[in-house]
Design brief:
One of its GO terms (molecular function) is hydrolase activity. It comes from Mesonia maritima. This protein has 226 residues and is of the alpha/beta class. It folds into two domains: 134 residues, Rossmann fold; 84 residues, Putative phosphatase, domain 2 (DNA polymerase, domain 1, Orthogonal Bundle), CATH 1.10.150.240. It has ten helices and six strands. Helix 1 packs across helix 4, helix 2 packs antiparallel against helix 3 and helix 3 packs across helix 4. The model has no long low-confidence stretch (mean pLDDT 95).
């Protein structure tokens, strides 16, 4: 990682513990809306469905509105839970409203950002919804670490499209050869950044290594790389 001046992070699943925070949000809104379902049963169906719908969203095969509605409606269908369109729309809105209420970060996120911020300029590139990403960062008290934030909605395209990375580099006033992208999604974060010549680090908490790329399973390991 020589000659690096700028480090770009993905937010969800990389710094911000999305699954943990999402589960807490659903626990709150299911209770609030009197949905009589066990949260564990709900999440067992919802989590993989959400991942599959996000893949379709990244590929521009569904709209943001379809993603928000169908990931909940199909979960209810799989659990044989009778609901109305109005209830699903209310849950979809409440989820976005309450998602930033809990802001657990991955272990050593703060100490690692403290270390890196002394030596590099830090940035965010995220496919997450514009209206909640900035709020997540603010509530988690990490917004001050990042000089720029590039979201897919303000870039007009989603990772792994090269344009979002190019716009992020331009916004940061830096170059691909001086930059590294750190993220948990092999397709969106790693392959996307590599296609425009950026170095990458694959954050993969469940695996020890990756055969063809620099990979870490804890954020703390970044302090030994940089």
């Amino acid at each position: 990682m020589t000659n690096i001046t700028d480090i770009f992070f993905d937010l969800d699943h990389t710094l911000w513990d999305f699954e943990r925070n999402s589960a807490l949000a659903f626990e709150k809104i299911l209770l609030k809306n009197e949905v009589d379902l066990n949260i564990t049963d709900f999440l067992k169906i919802y989590v993989p469905l959400n991942e599959s719908y996000w893949k379709l969203y990244r590929e521009d095969k569904i709209t943001k509105e379809d993603l928000r509605f169908k990931r909940i409606s199909e979960t209810f269908e799989a659990l044989n839970y009778k609901s109305s369109t109005q209830l699903i729309e209310k849950l979809a809105d409440d989820y976005i409203l309450h998602l930033p209420d809990n802001n657990h970060l991955f272990e050593d996120a703060i100490s690692t950002l403290d270390y890196l911020a002394e030596k590099y300029r830090l940035h965010i590139i995220t496919n997450g919804f514009e209206e909640v990403q900035h709020l997540k960062m603010k509530n988690a008290q990490i917004d001050h670490y990042f000089e720029t934030v590039t979201t897919s909605e303000n870039a007009g395209v989603k990772k792994p499209h090269p344009i979002i990375f190019e716009k992020a580099l331009k916004k940061a006033n830096t170059e691909n050869v001086k930059s590294v992208m750190i993220g948990d999604n092999l397709e969106a974060d790693i392959e996307g950044a590599e296609k425009i010549g950026m170095k990458t680090i694959y954050f993969t908490p469940n695996y020890l290594e990756h055969s063809s790329r620099t990979a870490i399973n804890t954020l703390k390991k970044l302090t030994t790389i940089f």
